[in-house]
Records
---
Amino acid sequence: MHFSFDRLRDNRYYSPPMMDPLPQYIDPIRLAIKFKRLSGQMSLGEMERLTSLLASTQGQVDIDLELGIDRSKIRNIRGRIRANVTLVCQRCLQTMDYMIDSKVMLGIIIEREQADQLPAKYEPLLIESDKVSLKDIIEDEMILAIPSTPHHDLSNDKEVCESTIKYFHNDSKGSVDGNKRENPFAVLADLKRKN
Ligand SMILES: [Zn+2]
């Protein structure tokens, strides 16, 4: 059986296929031998490690994965996950929408040492049993796709971010200028000096 990954990469052809509900657990090796495709949605609310990083637990992740074996006999999971999530901007501390659209390229390994032999294009996925939580795999990929310090896209949302910062700083010195803005550590140093 053959399939094209180019279709997954190309936005124009993407439409979430209607398929059976996603299984809770998968046997990745068996599914790779069968070249199984897994498509569907999972709700973000079920992913506790992920939602601890989000401002809202609402929403779904669209999943479109194909398991298979490549020319070098490496069993793999490839495809794409997409979700709209709400994060907290680390610049103005207001919520912001963020779209995750992440390519998945996992090389299945059964021993830790095999990770070194995987081609660089694969992230290793260490399988220790034939019953692996699909949710855990997706959740790990989602966590990796979230920026460590999210902030508004200043080319589009500059006004949102700036006006909020202005609002927050009005009580003190009122300036949003990066150089003039009161440095919290300087304030702290001041307090220490007074004591
Ligand atoms: Zn912001």
Note: The longest helix spans residues 134-145.
---
Amino acid sequence: MSSDVATEADQETRRLQHLGSMFDVRGLGVVVTGGGSGLGLTMGAALARAGASVTLLDREEDRLATAQEDLAADGYAVGTATADITDADALDEQFARLAASATGLHVAFANAGISAGIGPRLRSGRLTEIDRDRWRSVLDVNLTGAMNTVASAARHMTTGYGRIIVTSSVGGIRADPMVGYAYAASKAGVVGLVRNAALELAHRGILVNAIAPGLFETNIRRANPTAQAMTADFARISALKRAGRLAELEGLAVYLASPASSYVTGAVLSIDGGAALTGPNDVEV
Ligand SMILES: NC(=O)c1ccc[n+]([C@@H]2O[C@H](COP(=O)([O-])OP(=O)(O)OC[C@H]3O[C@@H](n4cnc5c(N)ncnc54)[C@H](O)[C@@H]3O)[C@@H](O)[C@H]2O)c1
């Protein structure tokens, strides 16, 4: 009886050790752009809780300070870095600083992004109404900013263990009239960026993947006045009939940063409740 109990306890220990070593991110240097809020903060916090050495990077200093305080209150120390991802030199300086730190740089989430408002579902989001300034600023942040981040990560990840994870969107992999043109174009664009970078960086042990989230409740949607209607529409078209909960991103973030994903590169991983499987909402004419 007592030896059976010992065996069970032993198996439980081995089970946890096995899981622990597959997903072991302890000691990895991680940077997350857009880390002051929403998906980035969720993914950064998940990595910090799993034992990684995390730096949240954002252009909003206040958000970073609040995030850092909240995590410290929970017992997790994270670093912060203020930079705008559209400023390639300022961003690169931060990456250089992190890579030169005692921990080094192993994992970069190119996650910061902004909304382009509603797409062709409404008249104001149709092709003839495109606001050129907004188009340029969305492309600048979501596509050029992601390229700046991936380029800096490629330049400064020199340890032989590298993971770059770019946040695309379900709106970048299939049509969605709720999603503004600039956003759809930028999120499709980063998928091309990821695939080429995966090919270029493989020989250096750097894996490059995209995640394509569906709808999650975050600050980005405050910039979109039709957010509530979008939530209802999104729930209707997703297979699971609901928006995502932020905690549901944590496992994927840890997986992609960890040794468990060692044979995955150039992939686009959907995390959208099955929304990409369904048809988009109609454009109402
Ligand atoms: N929330 C969703 O439903 C959803 C779905 C699919 C994809 N995404 C993508 O996820 C990413 C994160 O979005 P979120 O929902 O967490 O939004 P969010 O607004 O909550 O967080 C985005 C963060 O990025 C920062 N940021 C924006 N532009 C920046 C810049 N130029 N330089 C540095 N930091 C900048 C903001 O200050 C903010 O803290 C974005 O790329 C977004 O497109 C979000």
Note: Residues 28 and 105 are 7 Å apart (CA to CA).
---
Amino acid sequence: MEIFVAKESGFCFGVRRAVKIACEAREKWGTVYTYGELIHNKQYVEKLEQQGIRAAESIEDIPEGAVVIIRSHGISPQEEEKLRRRFKVIDATCPYVKKSQKFASRSVRGGTELVIFGDRYHPEIRGILGYTQGSGIVISDPEEVLKLSYTPKRAVISQTTNDLEDYKRFVGNLLETTEKLTVYQTICSSTIEKHRSAKDIASRVDLMLVIGGKHSSNTRKLFKACKNIQPNTYHIETAKELDLIEWENCERIGITAGASTPDFIIEEVVEKIKEGKNGRGKKER
Ligand code: SF4
């Protein structure tokens, strides 16, 4: 049996950066709070909690004057202002998300209707909507775009973790109802590379595993992209879930992981497969 671990598996640049910022703040200030979970991974959030990096779900959960970290997804300017009034704020918003926020606010200021390809309940999109004063139109399905009425001028951005092929379809459909369309390529390079390598591996193996939190939006998209290529693809959160899958008779197993999956969880999955089958793990670089 051979095991192929995709390039760019696990933590992306933005998540690594946010974790580093949080750890440095913890060193300097003692217990710190993140506004929302720093990453969508239960196991890692628990680890951070033990180190004094606590996740707060709302402003009310944070003691007055505390140090608060804005996570990589970013937040709306209105929320940021509220936080800055009561706490010492450290901004760990990913630079790619910052770029989307800038494009959104520029479009709306210029009087252009903004269409956002993404999930309206995802924190990144909720934050970006704040930069449009709520005027951004969020659509998650490329086919839904065809229902929009004709508009002479629009701009479009994508959630940073969407699949590039889906975004191309989204933009293509938008052209059917828009005369002048400004397209911003806002899918981050980390996602593009992650999807590219995962799809490549999915096309060459008998079983594909996508590791990541069940609520992690980017992991679910990665799973969907792999499943389209290899129907024998499973989304698992930890090595324990391997017990629910028939993998022992597979010759070639591919592994990838969402942007919020820590290395130790990927290693546990690889180790469990190796122990079970004496496999030869290969890391694709
Ligand atoms: S997925 Fe991309 S945009 Fe999102 S935090 Fe990671 S690097 Fe930044």
Note: The pocket of iron/sulfur cluster is lined by residues 12-15, 72, 94, 96-97, 160-161, 188, 190-191, 218, 259 (CB under 6 Å).
